[in-house]
Amino acid sequence: MGVQDLQDHVLVQCDFEIFGQVQGCGFTKFCRDNCLALGIKGWVKNSKQGTIMGKMQGAKGDVGKMVDWLSKTGSPGCKIEKAEFTNWGTCSRLAFTDFAIRF
C-alpha cells in the first residue's frame, strides 16, 4: 500500500449543491444508490430552489468518485449546469450510519 492508497482512505466530508435540471429525474435516488454502493454516508434532498443539496462523508477516493458523478454524470435525463462542493474537511469518524434521501 503506497502513500496515495493511504490518502485515498482518509475520511473526508463535504456539502454539495447541484444546479440545473436535476429535479424530477430520479437524481436523489441515483445519488443515494451510488453512495451506498461506494460506502459513503450522509444525505441528499431536493431544495425549494430547484437544486439538489446534500452532505457526504467517506473515504477520500470514494468521495472523489461521487464528486465526479455529481459534477458530470448525474441521473439519466438530468442536465447539470454547475456543482458546488463546500465545507471540505477530514473527519476522524463518520457522523452518519447510512446514506438517506431527506424530504
TrEMBL record:
Which EC numbers does the record give? 3.6.1.7
Which superkingdom heads the taxonomic lineage of this protein's source? Eukaryota
What name goes with this protein? acylphosphatase
Q: PANTHER family of this UniProt entry?
A: ACYLPHOSPHATASE (PTHR10029), GEO08407P1 (PTHR10029:SF10)
What protein family does this chain belong to?
Answer: Belongs to the acylphosphatase family.
Q: Where is the Acylphosphatase-like domain?
A: 13-103
What is catalyzed by this enzyme? an acyl phosphate + H2O = a carboxylate + phosphate + H(+)
InterPro entries the UniProt entry points to: Acylphosphatase, Acylphosphatase-like_dom, Acylphosphatase-like_dom_sf
Which SUPFAM superfamilies does this chain map to? Acylphosphatase/BLUF domain-like (SSF54975)
What keywords is this UniProt entry annotated with? Hydrolase
Q: Is the Hydrolase keyword given for this protein?
A: yes
Q: Which GO terms describe its molecular function?
A: acylphosphatase activity
